[in-house]
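[SOLVED] Predicted holo structure with flavin-adenine dinucleotide

Edit: marking solved, answer below. Original request kept for reference. I posted the sequence and ligand SMILES and asked for the 3D complex as structure tokens.
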Amino acid sequence: MDFLLTPQQQDFRARLRELLGGPEMRQALRDGSRADPHDPDPRPAYRLLGRHRWLAPDWPAERGGAGLDTVCANILTEELAVHHVPDSAHVNSVRNAGRCLLLCGSDRQRERLLPLLAGGDVLAAVLYSEPETGSDLASLRTIARPAHDGWRLHGTKVHSVKTAHCDLAIVAARTGEHPEPLLGITLFVVDLRAPGVTVRPVDGVNHEPFHQVLLDGLRVGPEDVVGDVDEGWLVITEGLAVERVGMDYSARVRAHLAWLRRRAADRGFGSAVAERLDRISTAAEAGRLLAWSMAGRLADGDLDPAEAAESKWLNSELMREVWELSQELSLPHDLLTAHDPGAPEDRTALLLNREAPGLSLSAGTSEMMLQVIAGNLGLEAGDAQ
Ligand SMILES: Cc1cc2nc3c(=O)[nH]c(=O)nc-3n(C[C@H](O)[C@H](O)[C@H](O)COP(=O)(O)OP(=O)(O)OC[C@H]3O[C@@H](n4cnc5c(N)ncnc54)[C@H](O)[C@@H]3O)c2cc1C
């Protein structure tokens, strides 16, 4: 299946493929893994993309992008996955934090920060979840206490990935008490190297380390507020809707599936395995169609969150199936020999192992996606029985 792309979009995909599959990218990925192979630094690879203005291709040129359309941004998402270039930091830094600043940031924030994010020199984390707060974000306890020059942030954030490599973060904190708990949350852009911030790795379901971020009196001023005070929820839902389009989930499913198929062929697995692979592949094509159709709706400004939840649910559940099949067939063995992040086949095994287990949780768990979908269909709990 392929889509009708304009000549400009086709040209973008072709040039991107050349860069992502070429020797410079291989070297950048090796460089990023040197210091800590378990938590590779994506910045050398992102800087290479940033040099071409392709890390945020749909951002305007004055913000560090290439001024291309949003289809090109989705092509980038697909190609990063196809070439097994780690993209979790890209999702957070450019597609979530960056987009949030692009849409809701002040002129000063946009001018100062977006070119840095688009250049790949600076990464931003997204700090919403807390030890007792995940699916129910309205229960967050991080507080912004008023001070003469703004606020002081106190609280603990958890479950962000790649945060040790990040300089900035978008933090959600409570600034006001309202009967409606989704009101009174404010987003701040913060400097993770500032006094009052401690970043530590913590264990989790993922093989990629999660981080805990302690905020102990971090000073933030009015210039650090993203969007309006007490109105952060609107910005958060905007960002989550983009993630739930499911483009990166869908692209990863297909990329990992192709690898698994090659492994199955090499090792001569029989028709039962071929049947399972075919069934997942067919569903994955449906997942891709759904993701592209959601991406089109987002670009047109009429994305329905319940439909986006369908795409996120389907594509992340397919990823779970790919992960389970890979455990049965190939992955444990391949991980023993996969050490070179510059080699695409090794990189796939490492990435699958590092990222796949958490995908049905991040950006909203599968249960929460099903709740949204059921609500949209007018179903109550227990209706299926
Ligand atoms: C790979 C990965 C990357 C992540 N990156 C980030 C990040 O960058 N920034 C960030 O802030 N957070 C991040 N998270 C955290 C993520 O958003 C949360 O893990 C997620 O929202 C679930 O929250 P929780 O872990 O607290 O689980 P809980 O909300 O405590 O849920 C536990 C279980 O109960 C189920 N459950 C909860 N409520 C309901 C309900 N009402 N109905 C039915 N079932 C329910 C859930 O589906 C889940 O199975 C990441 C998580 C992962 C796995």
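OP edit: Residues 92, 126-129, 134-135, 159-161, 206, 358, 361-362, 365, 367-368, 371 surround flavin-adenine dinucleotide (CB under 6 Å). Thanks to everyone who chimed in.
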